[in-house]
Amino acid sequence: MLENRLNDLESKFTFQDELLAELNDLVTKQQMAIDGLQRQVKLLTASANMNATGESNSSNERPPHY
Asked: pTM score, two decimals?
């Protein structure tokens, strides 16, 4: 009886340990995605601010012969 209970506890512990590792991997991947999105937002905000202040962006400029 006691041995069965011990085996059950070991089984549950193993399952929880594996689940914790999977969740940790998932959270790590999500944090990397969030970091990338934050960098993109900063770049887009800086670009929008430059365009709003009238600073020229070489990719949007017309050539001088127009």
From this structure: 0.63
